[in-house]
Amino acid sequence: MKRFVTGSLVAITLVLIAEFARGVDPTTTINLWPGKPPGETKALPPEAETTKPTDQKIAGKPVSRIGNVSIPTLAVYKPKKELDTGAAAIVCPGGGHYILAYDLEGTEVAAWLNSIGVTGIVLKYRVPAREPEKRYRAAVQDGQRAVSLVRSKAKEWGLDGKRIGMLGFSAGGETAARTALTPERTYDAVDDADKLSSRPDFVVLVYPGGLLDKDGKKLRDDVKVTRAAPPMFLAHAGDDKVNPENSVQLFLALKRVGVQADLHVYASGGHGFGLRPTDKPCTHWPKRCEEWMASRGLLLKP
């Protein structure tokens, strides 16, 4: 009975968070770059909501799918003052580097982060991919810039500059992982913000893709894991069409170099479930993540 009640309360809480996320406005929204982002050479059609009535719903609800992002932004969602820990996570929605699942893996996630005292900062990174061979390049540039820019705003936004993390889903998980694992900035510095570290202090990856080689048995050669990597939390469903070995192999690589990581592979759940609760255990990963964050001291109030 206790187990059922606890699970029900978690489900109810997540439903409330999801509903809240649809109606709340960010504390502030800023452009990521002071001018044109690096490498932009041609104009795209206007940014637009691309969701169609026939598109798949998640947990019975539609998903906001934003396409043609040319002007990346950061939308900052602050928790209530009495909950605020000073920690922050830059949220990278998924979408296959085609679109961004902006509510499912963005604003709803920011609302959950707010509920545990963490500032959620939703990164609207560039889509669709600019380069066929390196689909992640523009997204990672935006990810690196986001980390440095948030660090530069830490005092203004009431954040702890040593607890700036990233939380990414699917292609956004690849973006967050590569941002964390890439030691050098992948663009020329544009202002003083870029003098600050572009690596996050912790990373949460939910069904990340794009990290495996063509055989799907090991990490790509350009995904280099060293002792300098931040601690990570990884969650994946075993029946995901995006190979769960993306998470498994990254976990093993982190373990080999002595970087602390938590890995949760659930038997079923498929892909793209976000944090909308269903009868699948995989949709309760946020509770496990909260426990992990607490164990690392990320949720301590200043």
SSE ordering: HEEEEEEHEHHEHEEHEH
Average pLDDT reading:
92
Tell me the total number of β-strands: 11
Strand order of the largest sheet: 1-4-7-5-8-9-10-11
Percent helix among the residues? 25-40%
Identify low-pLDDT runs: 1-22
Strand content: 15-25%
Distance between the termini: 37 Å
Please tally the helical runs, counting DSSP H or I stretches of 4 or more residues. Answer: 7
> Major beta sheet, specifics?
8 strands, mixed
Radius of gyration, CA atoms, in whole angstroms: 18 Å
Derived from helix and strand composition plus strand pairing, the structural class reads alpha/beta
Inertia-based shape: globular
Q: Topology of this protein?
A:
Blueprint: H1 2-23, E1 28-31, E2 48-49, E3 65-67, E4 73-77, E5 88-92, E6 99-101, H2 103-115, E7 119-124, H3 137-152, H4 154-157, E8 164-169, H5 171-181, E9 203-206, E10 232-237, H6 245-257, E11 261-266, H7 285-295
Parallel strand pairs: 5-7, 5-8, 8-9, 9-10, 10-11
Antiparallel strand pairs: 1-4, 2-3, 3-6, 4-7
Helix pairs in contact: 1-2, 3-5
Explain this structure:
- With 302 residues, the protein is of the alpha/beta class.
- The chain is 30% helix and 17% strand.
- The chain has helices spanning 2-23, 103-115, 137-152, 154-157, 171-181, 245-257, 285-295, and strands at 28-31, 48-49, 65-67, 73-77, 88-92, 99-101, 119-124, 164-169, 203-206, 232-237, 261-266.
- Helix 1 (2-23) crosses helix 2 (103-115) and helix 3 packs across helix 5 (171-181).
- The protein starts with a helix and ends in a 7-residue tail after the last helix.
- Mean pLDDT is 92; it is low at 1-22.
